[in-house]
What we know:
Layout: H1 2-14, H2 32-44, H3 52-69, H4 72-89, H5 92-109, H6 112-128, H7 132-146, H8 156-169, H9 173-186, H10 192-208, H11 212-229, H12 232-248, H13 252-263, H14 267-270, H15 272-288, H16 292-416, H17 424-455, E1 464-467, H18 468-483, E2 488-493, E3 499-502, H19 504-520, E4 526-534, E5 539-546, H20 576-586, E6 591-593, E7 601-608
Parallel strand pairs: 2-4
Antiparallel strand pairs: 1-3, 4-5, 5-7, 6-7
Helix pairs in contact: 1-8, 1-12, 1-15, 2-4, 3-4, 4-5, 4-6, 5-6, 6-7, 7-8, 8-9, 8-10, 9-10, 10-11, 11-12, 12-13, 13-15, 15-16, 16-17, 17-20, 18-19, 19-20
Amino acid sequence: MRHIVICKIVFALTFWSFVAFSTKAQFKDESEDKILESLIEIDVHGQNFIPSDSVFALSRKMTKTFENNGSKRALFELKRMEVLAYIVKGQMVVGIEKAQSMYDLAQSKNYQTGIAISIRAIGDAYLYSGLIPQARESYIEAYNIMKEISEAKIFLKPLLMKMIYCDLHLDKTVEAGNYLKDFKALLKSTDNIFWFYCHYYSFFYNDQINNTERAFWYRDQAIKTGRSLKIESVNYHVDYLDLIYLEDQGENEQVLNKYNYLLGNKYNEILPSSYFVLLLGKAELLVRMDRLDEACDIYQKIYTYKENLNINSTVRQIDALRAKYQADRIKFQSRLENSQTIRLLIVIWSILLLLVLAFILFLKHQIKQLVISKKRMIKAKEKAEISIKVKSLFLMNMTHEIRTPLNGLLGFSSVLSSIGEVDEETRLQCVEQIKGNSMLLHKLINDVLDISRLESREIHFNYRNIDAIQLCRAVLDKVKKETNCPLDITFVSHYSKLMILTDSDRLQQVLTNLLVNATKFTTEGSITLALKRDTDSNYAMFAVTDTGKGIPEEKRSQIFDRFVKLNEYAQGSGLGLAICRLIVERLGGKIWVDPGYSTGARFIFTHPIHDQQERSSE
């Protein structure tokens, strides 16, 4: 129990300790941080007690100044001090109402720092009332808000002191240890007063977890730091540490003298709880010293003192609540007498209307569900039919496309394996045909795999900055070499260099498919690959133009579908343009057939030009 008594003493001394200051408008020309440091110093240092009337006077003088200067943090901190002043004066209900008023003001302005300060004020009211669990919840809520706001971090140190006290009192040693770590992390080398309290609470914490050696070390550090500060309230704590030390040594007479000295301290007039705790400690000491008559007198005094304190507190709260209740009851009774009949009719009609409306909504919902179910069934049926058609079309096309190169492979293989002599020229032709049909079969399988992976988005695009001009020239040379096309295939662009962020392999695949497709349907004339930049939309525009057969107008909307072929007898799977569309869309562009070009066919697609740095792979 000793650590609880110690913690109560700590709270009693630190809960309301003020540094002497003038109530003149001394803060008017200071920065807000300086003002806050002064207010926090008043709250923590506690050299002299300032009467509540002085706090009220300061609030009246400085509230308008802080409002006009926009010093919201200082304004709310001053209001919190005013709440504590009411509590110390014994006007607990008024203090709680002031705290609630602070909270409402902060909520109306959506000012998170003010909300946190208000919640802390509510926690202070709970703590002074002896409701430590509720106080702890309020402090934790305020802490969680403040630690996320940069401007509120100045309040964390004094708030953590209150939280550590609550956890030690409630035997929440794990939480107290964690908050002690947070407290130490905030301290600077010049925070001597906070270092004192850090050592002080660390002593209590280690005493709770039975780490005696470490507890004694912190006690020595606290005494050393406290004596160097020469602050009256801190000296009080140091004296209590001396009392603990003397008690450990069994120096009962000196401990008794120390209790008498501390009981005569003026802080006990300010905080009744500290006086009560000291009386209790003295009574327990007298019991150990077998001075039972004196101990009995003190226990009787404690009982009477505590009873009177509770009665006074209860009377104040009941009076305030009763006055509020009576005012509310009179107002309610007046309204009830004036509108009872009307309200009854409104309730009855409202119930009937709600029942009718609920029934209508229920019917509407059921009808809607039926309609939705019917639509779903129709869509499911359509999807199933389309799926069957697509599957059948896919199997038919794949069977046809695979059978053609397979027939070639089987036929020319049979020729090579025939028993008779095969001359060298025939053998070379057969080998060339087998090679061509193998490549055709390989391309068909690759196209099927590509379109499947593109549609399921399993292909990952690797983006990097490349020169589109250089890529176009390379693709053009590759197509000329592989197709042995006799036509004039040219590249046209006004740029010598155009950097774009793209997947070069996939862009090259699109250009290759379009150029190879052009060579298949162009027997004379030329094929042109053009590249320009649309400065308005920041897109690169690629165009492949040929002088071939062209595309009938009725086929243009279907040309990019799978297995669509203008010439059923031409080589190819009908997947090339479908793959081109999927790749272009994945790259962020669009592809279409130029409807205004009639000399052949012109395919145009766009590609965004990204100015940002190379992005990661999709």
